[in-house]
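Review form for a predicted model. The reviewer records the input and the model, then writes brief findings.
Reviewer: anonymous (R2)
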Amino acid sequence: MDTFILPAEEFVDARVTPRGSLETLSQAEIDKLLDSGQGGLYPLFRKCALAVLNSGGELDDARRIFERYRDFDVTLARQAWGIKLELRNAPAVAFVDGQMIKGIKEHLFAVLRDVVYIANEIVDSGRFDLTEQASVTNAVFHILRNAHMLDVRGRPNVVVCWGGHAISRKEYDYTKIVGYELGLRGLDVCTGCGPGAMKGPMKGATIGHQKQRIHTGRYIGITEPGIIAAEPPNAIVNQLVIMPDIEKRLEAFVRFGHGIVVFPGGVGTTEEILYVLGILLDPANAQQPVPLIFTGPRESAAYFEQVNAFIGATLGAEAQGRYRIIIDDAAAVARAMVQGLEEVREWRKRASDSYNFNWLLRIPPDLQLPFEVTHESMSALQLGAAQPVHARAANLRRAFSGIVTGNVKENGVQAIERLGPFELRADRTLGAALDGLLKAFVEQRRMKIADGHYKPCYRLVG
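Model under review:
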């Protein structure tokens, strides 16, 4: 049982026993977890652990979280029956009546599991060449399998839901209704695991599952260290996995999920849209059925008109033909998804591909390999209409990834403060479409705005 040591208004000291498969670690694993030097895991583990413990708190700004809890510390204590985590100055929001909330405890040890596994079995083992496409896909598969995500018995029923974490109340309520309709039809929900459009579908699905007496509903969260502080796992997530970086997170979504619903969001959601469209526009995936639906309440109609116009201007009608837009009709979304998932099932059966991991989907290298966001790499992006459409989508996705980094990720925010905004070089057509979309996001308050004003982390140059 956990022991409660120091009650406080904001900070808590505690010792926590793991749940599940991590009751023992080798001495080498413990040493690496506690190593704060270069190559050690402590800084990464501390960052992810603090983000999980802050779930439900009022802060979603990574810098402010790390500043408020700058004295937070986590160490491992070995005992005769296993290990315990010793927490100092942890967020009090993770505890109730002196005990850590069970869901947060599960998330905390999911972080420990994935940080240890990725370091030892993926990065340092020599088994995976993370510059080679097939090897990257194998690594993603192994991480998901180690986290017990892959249900070998189930039919295709995992719906990935993307959308913003800071959406309007009407938009949030609509995500819950869609989740409810999905749950009534026995579908499970997978999201980026944070608040807003990542939480609403899970919340609705729990009610739909309970009405249908489905007690094995899965509410799956897939995240990565660069964004977890701004989007900590919500309390409904009952299966959490931490991927090494944004590209492997995105690959996990599209290979693990069976269909995708996109709710209103900002630049992060647009990055996800461009990622999946870049894959679907690759000629190798022309026959792959991947149900893709954009939806929101009637108040969001203008948002989707803007996104659809942007896709038309930058990627063309072929890209627009790979998704449906359904406004203010949650039941229609769920029915369309059920129909789409049946097509997925039949296609994978004919192609002899597995139901739980889409091996046959081709992900181009420009979308699969990590993009390091720097001022130099952003300036070097080729944003022009002369490129093949799937390559154009990949570079646009990288541009939006850089804007996400400059808006919310600690390293990006610091780089902007030191060196000024990123420069994006685009031809006239793409530049106008990009500028129009981003300005619309600011007007609709879909960008991270501090003190009532958005200061762009980018500027367009000819």
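Findings: Confidence is low (pLDDT under 50) at residues 1-8.
Further findings: The chain has two domains: 3-127, 149-462.
Recommendation: see findings above.
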